[in-house]
Design goal:
The chain is an all-alpha fold. It contains eleven helices and no strands. Helix 2 crosses helix 3 and helix 5 runs antiparallel to helix 6.
Length: about 210
């Protein structure tokens, strides 16, 4: 949102008490803004601590589905909520590396479920689930490419772990091939430079809705 220079100048001239009142009104209406200010001004630990805390929450949250008795639709809804948590984490902490790490962890946990009873792979039942996950995987790979290469080493272990989880399940490998995703991109941590263009082409072909 852009503001006129005259408005900015007038705002700067407001007495401190008036500015404080306006600030309180704004943060009361915008929880994310409040959390961001809280993190920057008061929180006694850094973005990596917050990242690790959320990673543990994601692992624990998805692990509870291992016992069975849940529909994939329920698990997908939980994964969507975790995606929202990741988005909020990045807004509050500006942790771009953490955004990728947390998405890789979410994908690890979500895809590993498909190889455990009672979630044996059935394309008809989990097509919507996999479509969501593969779209997330492609977008995560695009984010990796946008990071400086120096950060790739930090992401390598989680990328390789995800690749191995996919390779463990023959049906997942088959589905990845169907949507033209090469699992070796994760194993070798070698994402094509034109991944964003490649992904758009996949979408245009109707392979991922």
């Amino acid at each position: 949102m852009k503001f006129h220079d005259d408005f900015k100048a007038a705002l700067a001239l407001l007495p401190s008490k008036e500015k404080d009142k306006l600030l309180w009104r704004l943060i009361k209406r915008d929880e994310l803004l409040a959390r961001r200010l809280e993190f920057e001004l008061l929180v006694p630990y850094d973005a990596i601590d917050k990242r690790n805390e959320l990673a543990g929450h994601i692992r624990k949250g998805i692990a509870r589905y291992n016992g069975g008795g849940y529909r994939l639709a329920e698990i997908l809804s939980q994964c969507r909520r975790f995606s929202g948590d990741i988005t909020r984490h990045v807004y509050v902490t500006k942790d771009k590396v953490g955004e990728i790490t947390l998405n890789l962890i979410l994908l690890q946990e979500a895809l590993a479920l498909l190889y455990r009873p009672p979630f044996r792979f059935s394309f008809r039942v989990v097509e919507k689930y996999l479509t969501y996950m593969m779209n997330k995987l492609y977008r995560t790979c695009i984010m990796i490419n946008k990071l400086h290469v120096d950060y790739h080493l930090e992401l390598e272990d989680d990328a390789q772990k995800l690749g191995k989880i996919i390779n463990t399940n023959p049906d997942l490998v088959k589905y990845a091939r169907t949507v033209k995703f090469n699992v070796d991109w994760l194993i070798d941590m070698d994402i094509p430079e034109d991944m964003d263009t490649y992904y758009k082409t996949i979408k245009q072909q109707g392979l991922l809705k």
